[in-house]
Write a structure and sequence with these properties.
7-stranded antiparallel β-sheet, elongated
């Protein structure tokens, strides 16, 4: 992923706050020799304090042999993406039809070292942590090895603890464009009001001055 200086996060807090509100992504695992990579959509729970991600997959999932052969993986999360029409990006001294269309998006890629957990008691601990993330209000019986109703199901899954060893984050919202162009884009997003337009507009407004301040 190319990250221009004006698209880089201000600090770790910026991407961590954003990732804290996102818990669905794609896990990329290097394929075995001669095979393509595995790309697995999944829910996950990210813990900034522990610098780790917890998730789980069904035991029959075909990615396990590749993961066991190479535990270095990438978890990719993308959201707040929108299409920006060319006329919105045209400076005032350029015909609107000459404006260059583009995409806006926020993305975080976590490079991780995967640790497979097969011990039933350990799996229960990690599963309860993941459920607690998604259901803080409770409502489900805690998982316990050897106990009903979920203990007997533990053999059908494997838990993944992903140790985060590197982070690449990007907020592509035209922070390097002239103020007049940014104003046009903000107005266009507000008027269009499509899916994710409000989130993209919030990013662009929030990140104004990032590039000028960094130069």
């Amino acid at each position: 992923m190319l990250i221009h200086p004006w698209d880089a996060p201000r600090d770790d807090a910026e991407w961590q706050v954003w990732l804290g509100a996102h818990d669905f992504g794609q896990l990329a695992v290097n394929g075995l020799p001669g095979e393509p990579p595995h790309v697995q959509p999944l829910h996950f729970a990210y813990d900034a304090g522990r610098a780790e991600v917890v998730t789980h997959l069904a035991r029959p999932n075909p990615l396990w042999p590749a993961l066991e052969a190479d535990p270095d993986v990438l978890l990719s999360v993308v959201d707040d993406y929108v299409y920006v029409p060319g006329p919105w990006q045209a400076p005032r001294d350029v015909p609107p039809e000459h404006g260059v269309p583009t995409s806006f998006y926020a993305a975080v890629q976590l490079r991780c070292r995967a640790h497979i957990v097969d011990d039933p008691a350990e799996k229960a601990v990690f599963l309860n942590r993941q459920v607690g993330h998604f259901q803080p209000e409770g409502g489900s019986v805690p998982v316990a090895a050897g106990e009903e109703p979920f203990g007997r199901m533990l053999s059908g899954i494997r838990v993944l603890r992903l140790e985060v060893v590197g982070v690449r984050a990007k907020f592509k919202y035209a922070s390097h464009k002239p103020q007049e162009v940014q104003d046009q884009v903000v107005a266009g997003l507000a008027a269009r009001g499509g899916p994710r337009d409000a989130a993209a507009r919030e990013h662009q407004v929030r990140r104004r001055g990032v590039w000028s301040a960094a130069r």
